[in-house]
Amino acid sequence: MSEPGEVWESIRRVTEFTVTEDHLKLLRHAYVSWHDSEYGSPSIDCKRPYGESYVERSMAEILGVPESEWLDDEEGPRPGVEDLCAQLHAETAIALQIVLATGEFRAGRYTRPEWGDGWTRWRADRLPDRAALPGGGGAVVAGEFGGQVERYGYWQDVDGAVVVGGAPDPVWGQG
């Protein structure tokens, strides 16, 4: 079983991240308290981050996952559920950094410099022109399809968010 802290250590330096609706739902239910150490600071309750101490149950309820899909009555959580919850829970730390840096609760792909916390929403207008890419070529927009503009394997939705086609997702490793 993965521990959220171990997952956090493995992902905390990512420079690209996709905030999902699941991250936002969990953050909206985060139990914020005051950590009274040194000068003190707001913090998310580490024992009950989403309301109760059975974190997987809280997460499932918030995300609308039926009990039959994640819980085995006799054994506790089904195999793999604790690892998925640990992954999603650790990812909420990055999602929270992004929300605070951008000032908005918005799903989408974000990037930051290798060193620093300057998270910004990834937009197609920030993508390099094909002429600047190895192999050259002209900057061509392939066209609009279903409200999205395709350019070099990236799709820009109508509000400027970018969907990556064919490239591995930095979090889940899927294209």
Main beta sheet, described?
A: 4 strands, antiparallel
Cα radius of gyration in angstroms: 19 Å
The number of distinct β-strands equals: 11
- In terms of DSSP E residues, the strand content is 15-25%
- Number of self-contained structural domains: 2
Strands of the widest sheet, in order across it, are 8-9-10-11
Output mean pLDDT: 77
User: Any idea what the shape is?
Assistant: globular
The class by helix and strand makeup works out as alpha+beta
Helix share, percent: 25-40%
**Which residue ranges are poorly predicted, with pLDDT under 50 across at least 5 consecutive positions?**
128-156, 162-175
The helix count comes to 5
Distance between the termini: 25 Å
Secondary-structure element series: HEHEEHHEEHEEEEEE
